Amino acid sequence: MPPSASSPAVAARMSRQASRDTAQELAVRRLLHAKGLRYRVHVPVPGLPRRTMDIAFGKLRIAVFLDGCFWHGCPEHATRPRANAEWWRSKLDRNIARDRETTDHLSSANWTVLRFWEHDSVEEIADRVARAVTSKKPPVGRA
After folding, report:
1. Quick one: pLDDT band at residue 138, thresholds 50, 70, 90?
2. Nearest CA-CA partner of 98 in 81, 129, 73, 75
3. 114: domain CATH number?
4. Domain range enclosing 64
5. Domain for residue 5, yes or no?
6. pTM (global) more than 0.85
7. Which of 61, 70, 128, 131 counts the highest number of beta carbons within 10 A?
Protein backbone atom coordinates (compact mmCIF):
# COMPACT_ATOMS: atom_id res chain seq x y z
CA MET A 1 0.00 0.00 0.00
CA PRO A 2 1.46 3.41 -0.93
CA PRO A 3 2.19 5.90 1.82
CA SER A 4 -0.63 8.25 2.63
CA ALA A 5 -1.05 11.88 3.56
CA SER A 6 1.20 13.08 6.37
CA SER A 7 -1.22 12.36 9.21
CA PRO A 8 -4.71 11.03 9.89
CA ALA A 9 -5.84 14.63 10.53
CA VAL A 10 -4.55 15.77 7.12
CA ALA A 11 -6.12 12.75 5.43
CA ALA A 12 -9.48 13.49 7.08
CA ARG A 13 -9.32 17.17 6.12
CA MET A 14 -8.42 16.39 2.50
CA SER A 15 -11.19 13.78 2.20
CA ARG A 16 -13.74 16.46 3.12
CA GLN A 17 -12.70 18.68 0.20
CA ALA A 18 -15.57 18.95 -2.26
CA SER A 19 -14.79 17.20 -5.52
CA ARG A 20 -18.08 18.07 -7.17
CA ASP A 21 -20.75 20.72 -6.87
CA THR A 22 -18.22 23.24 -5.57
CA ALA A 23 -19.28 26.86 -5.08
CA GLN A 24 -17.56 27.74 -8.36
CA GLU A 25 -19.31 24.95 -10.27
CA LEU A 26 -22.70 25.96 -8.90
CA ALA A 27 -22.11 29.63 -9.76
CA VAL A 28 -20.98 28.83 -13.32
CA ARG A 29 -23.90 26.47 -13.86
CA ARG A 30 -26.33 29.10 -12.56
CA LEU A 31 -24.94 31.67 -15.04
CA LEU A 32 -25.02 29.21 -17.95
CA HIS A 33 -28.62 28.33 -17.15
CA ALA A 34 -29.52 32.04 -17.00
CA LYS A 35 -28.05 32.38 -20.51
CA GLY A 36 -30.49 29.71 -21.69
CA LEU A 37 -27.87 26.98 -22.02
CA ARG A 38 -28.70 23.42 -21.05
CA TYR A 39 -26.00 20.94 -20.14
CA ARG A 40 -25.25 17.78 -18.21
CA VAL A 41 -23.08 17.63 -15.10
CA HIS A 42 -20.54 15.04 -13.96
CA VAL A 43 -20.68 13.17 -17.26
CA PRO A 44 -18.32 10.19 -17.58
CA VAL A 45 -15.48 10.72 -20.04
CA PRO A 46 -16.07 8.18 -22.84
CA GLY A 47 -13.34 5.56 -22.84
CA LEU A 48 -11.70 6.66 -19.59
CA PRO A 49 -13.13 5.02 -16.48
CA ARG A 50 -13.49 6.98 -13.24
CA ARG A 51 -13.17 10.37 -14.94
CA THR A 52 -15.95 12.88 -15.37
CA MET A 53 -16.50 16.20 -17.10
CA ASP A 54 -17.73 18.88 -14.71
CA ILE A 55 -20.09 20.28 -17.36
CA ALA A 56 -20.78 18.75 -20.76
CA PHE A 57 -22.66 19.73 -23.87
CA GLY A 58 -22.75 16.22 -25.32
CA LYS A 59 -24.30 16.82 -28.74
CA LEU A 60 -21.88 19.67 -29.36
CA ARG A 61 -18.94 17.76 -27.87
CA ILE A 62 -17.90 20.50 -25.46
CA ALA A 63 -16.35 19.47 -22.15
CA VAL A 64 -15.81 21.96 -19.32
CA PHE A 65 -13.48 21.35 -16.37
CA LEU A 66 -13.24 23.65 -13.35
CA ASP A 67 -9.92 22.77 -11.76
CA GLY A 68 -8.90 23.58 -8.20
CA CYS A 69 -5.55 25.35 -7.92
CA PHE A 70 -4.11 22.99 -5.29
CA TRP A 71 -5.25 19.64 -6.69
CA HIS A 72 -4.55 20.41 -10.36
CA GLY A 73 -1.29 22.36 -10.07
CA CYS A 74 -2.18 25.95 -10.96
CA PRO A 75 1.05 27.68 -12.02
CA GLU A 76 -0.01 30.86 -10.18
CA HIS A 77 -1.44 29.56 -6.90
CA ALA A 78 -0.55 25.92 -6.33
CA THR A 79 1.51 25.19 -3.26
CA ARG A 80 3.17 21.94 -2.35
CA PRO A 81 2.92 20.71 1.24
CA ARG A 82 6.25 20.45 3.04
CA ALA A 83 5.23 17.56 5.28
CA ASN A 84 5.46 14.24 3.44
CA ALA A 85 6.65 16.24 0.40
CA GLU A 86 7.57 13.28 -1.80
CA TRP A 87 4.15 11.65 -1.40
CA TRP A 88 2.38 14.94 -2.22
CA ARG A 89 4.68 15.64 -5.19
CA SER A 90 3.86 12.24 -6.65
CA LYS A 91 0.12 12.61 -5.96
CA LEU A 92 -0.18 16.09 -7.47
CA ASP A 93 2.02 15.24 -10.47
CA ARG A 94 -0.26 12.27 -11.21
CA ASN A 95 -3.27 14.60 -11.09
CA ILE A 96 -1.66 16.96 -13.61
CA ALA A 97 -0.73 14.05 -15.90
CA ARG A 98 -4.29 12.68 -15.63
CA ASP A 99 -5.70 16.08 -16.63
CA ARG A 100 -3.43 16.19 -19.69
CA GLU A 101 -4.38 12.64 -20.65
CA THR A 102 -8.09 13.43 -20.31
CA THR A 103 -7.75 16.59 -22.42
CA ASP A 104 -5.76 14.75 -25.10
CA HIS A 105 -8.24 11.86 -25.14
CA LEU A 106 -11.25 14.13 -25.56
CA SER A 107 -9.51 16.35 -28.12
CA SER A 108 -8.60 13.33 -30.23
CA ALA A 109 -12.30 12.35 -30.16
CA ASN A 110 -13.19 15.81 -31.56
CA TRP A 111 -14.36 17.33 -28.29
CA THR A 112 -13.68 20.97 -27.48
CA VAL A 113 -12.09 20.97 -24.03
CA LEU A 114 -12.34 24.10 -21.88
CA ARG A 115 -10.35 24.15 -18.64
CA PHE A 116 -10.56 26.88 -16.04
CA TRP A 117 -8.90 27.50 -12.68
CA GLU A 118 -10.79 28.03 -9.45
CA HIS A 119 -9.50 31.62 -9.31
CA ASP A 120 -10.99 32.51 -12.72
CA SER A 121 -14.01 34.79 -12.73
CA VAL A 122 -17.24 32.79 -12.93
CA GLU A 123 -18.69 35.47 -15.22
CA GLU A 124 -15.76 35.16 -17.63
CA ILE A 125 -15.98 31.36 -17.52
CA ALA A 126 -19.70 31.46 -18.34
CA ASP A 127 -19.08 33.94 -21.18
CA ARG A 128 -16.32 31.81 -22.71
CA VAL A 129 -18.41 28.65 -22.45
CA ALA A 130 -21.42 30.42 -23.97
CA ARG A 131 -19.28 31.65 -26.89
CA ALA A 132 -18.00 28.12 -27.51
CA VAL A 133 -21.54 26.71 -27.44
CA THR A 134 -22.91 29.45 -29.70
CA SER A 135 -20.11 28.96 -32.23
CA LYS A 136 -20.96 25.25 -32.53
CA LYS A 137 -24.75 25.50 -32.56
CA PRO A 138 -26.37 25.47 -35.99
CA PRO A 139 -28.55 28.51 -36.74
CA VAL A 140 -32.22 28.16 -35.84
CA GLY A 141 -34.97 28.87 -38.34
CA ARG A 142 -35.29 28.68 -42.08
CA ALA A 143 -32.35 28.70 -44.38
Report:
1. confident
2. 73
3. 3.40.960.10
4. 18-136
5. no
6. no
7. 70
